[in-house]
Amino acid sequence: MSEVFKILVVNPGSTSSKLGLFENEQMIAEKKINHSAEELANFPKIIDQVDFRRHCMDEFLREQNVKPHTLSAVVGRGGLLKPIPGGTYRVTPPIMEDLKSARYGEHASNMGALLAHTFTQDYSIPSFIVDPVVVDEYQKIARYSGLKEIPRVPIWHALNVMAVVRQTCKNEGFELKEDNFVVAHIGGGISVSAIEKGRCIDVSNGLEAGPFTPERAGSLPTTQLVNLCFSGKYTHAEIKKLLVGRGGMVNHLGTSSLMEVEERIKDGDLACKEVFEAMCYQIAKEIGSYVAVLRGQVRR
After folding, report:
1. What is the distance between the alpha carbons of residues 259 and 89, in angstroms, rounded to a whole number?
2. Alpha helices, DSSP H, located in 107-208
3. Top-level class of domain 140-293
């Protein structure tokens, strides 16, 4: 009889924690825990949420009657690291240091490796990350911006996007290495990617650009942004938080919860409806632009 590996998976998002328990490739339990903007406002930095999110993981294991020491491995969503190819990586001290110091930026996914590694510290269980958000397979032309000092860099939802593409190929009989796809990841962060023959050749930066999201500002008029930065109203840290964490629907409507937005629209809140439709409009524009990147040759 083949060995059974029990694996705990954590995907920390900007507004939720997604947890899964696997036996080999079979998922035996899953849970999504939504976190309100008010709840997360108690943590000045994303890294400050680690203990809070670990508590969610411990509670999930208790609900499944699983003792942590019986796990074979814990896998976390990869965070903002130096650009690397897609793949599976063991959590190491250099990875931990870069994520703790936010060397390459703050993002909810930074907690993935840190959360997984808490089980290594407590129970000597191996910890890994898979397809972090910095997977870089850009075509050269996609790196250019209008300023040579600021090249475009990919920060995207690589883990989810590539999983969806692989599953679509499996379900529909498409060929990953032969077909092209445009994929929109829509969550607390949004990224739209052009996948050419299994490689992401261009993608909207899910942290700094693209459509506005439930809690991110997305692309902005640059002159107005510069004026806001030098207005004296905000510190450097406050501006960064305004762009990522308190932007998008949080800025317009005071909430990042789409469920709350839906209820407000049902209750006749026309201003809420307009903001929601504006976000959808921007997502649709982004999808169309990435179809153009693939010259219209898109399987799905």
Report:
1. 35
2. 110-123, 158-172
3. alpha beta
Q: Report pLDDT for 2.
A: 73
Q: Does 6-130 carry CATH code 3.30.420.40? A: yes
Can you count the helices (H) and strands (E) in the chain?
10, 9
**CA nearest 197: which of 178, 175, 182?**
178
3-state SS track over 256-273? CCHHHHHHHHHCCCHHHH
Using CA atoms, how far apart are residues 208 and 191, in angstroms rounded to an integer? 10
Residue pair 75/128 in contact by the 8 Å Cβ criterion: yes
Residue 74 φ then ψ, to 5°: -125, 130
Whether residue 284 has pLDDT greater than 90: yes
6-130 and 140-293, same CATH topology? yes
Give the span between the Cα atoms of 226 and 223, in whole angstroms: 5
Q: Which helix (H) or strand (E) holds 60?
A: helix 50-63
Task: Give CA–CA dist 17/175, Å, rounded.
Answer: 32
How confident is the model over 160-219, as pLDDT tens digits?
A: 999 999 999 999 999 999 999 999 999 999 999 999 999 999 999 999 999 999 999 999
Query: For the chain, which residues make up each domain, given as ranges?
Result: 6-130, 140-293
